[in-house]
Amino acid sequence: MSISAQLEALIYAAGASGIEIKQLAQISQLSMAVVRENVVKLVEASSAADYGLVIQQNGDLVTMSTKPEYDQAVRKVLNDDDSLLTPAMLETLTIVAYQQPITRLQVDEVRGVNSSVSLKNLQSLGLIIIAGQADEPGTPNLYRTTDLFLRAFGLTDLQQLPPLPVEQPTSDGAMYPARNDDEGEPE
């Protein structure tokens, strides 16, 4: 049995929650250095190979998942066509991801609507957390994304977020088109 194959089996057995490098070393009775070296090889091999699965490493957490390009096909097998994230939640998550740490009021300013419900729902899904309090009146909570966010979107770090498009002012000089009130969240 090869070390890589053993580690791959352990990563698969860990399921969607993944497994820490330390746990892999304990279970396989290998040194942390050997585990890290072989995990890097598995990450590179799985991303380069023409397989439907990919092994990802986020810090010390290692996960196995389907490649993003097969998401729609996998959803059909799972009969899961409903996204967990509403458009309002996706918009809020995007703002947090690009501008973190960020307060609710700052998110509200960008969206133009109250984002309390979306922030609460994103917290309950484990995609964002409260990362502290801002040093301003009322000490509002600061939100940031989690490792689960990175895994869910197939990222290893925030540097892999696509660059934001350069906004051009509209004909009336505004940076964003006027918003229809029906697009926001009811609160």
Largest sheet: 3 strands, antiparallel
Provide the residue-averaged pLDDT.
Answer: 85
For the secondary structure, the number of strands is 5
In whole angstroms, how far apart are the ends?
57 Å
- Biggest sheet strand order reads 1-3-2
Regions with little confidence, pLDDT below 50 for 5+ residues: 181-187
Radius of gyration, in Å, reads: 20 Å
Structure description:
There is one protein chain. The chain is an alpha+beta fold and 187 residues long. The chain has eight helices and five strands; from the N terminus they run αβααββααααββα. It has helices at residues 3-14, 21-28, 32-48, 71-78, 87-99, 104-111, 116-124, 147-152; strands at residues 19-20, 53-58, 61-66, 128-133, 141-145. Strands 1-3-2 form a three-stranded antiparallel β-sheet.
What is this structure's SSE topology?
Layout: H1 3-14, E1 19-20, H2 21-28, H3 32-48, E2 53-58, E3 61-66, H4 71-78, H5 87-99, H6 104-111, H7 116-124, E4 128-133, E5 141-145, H8 147-152
Antiparallel strand pairs: 1-3, 2-3, 4-5
Helix pairs in contact: 1-3, 2-3, 5-7
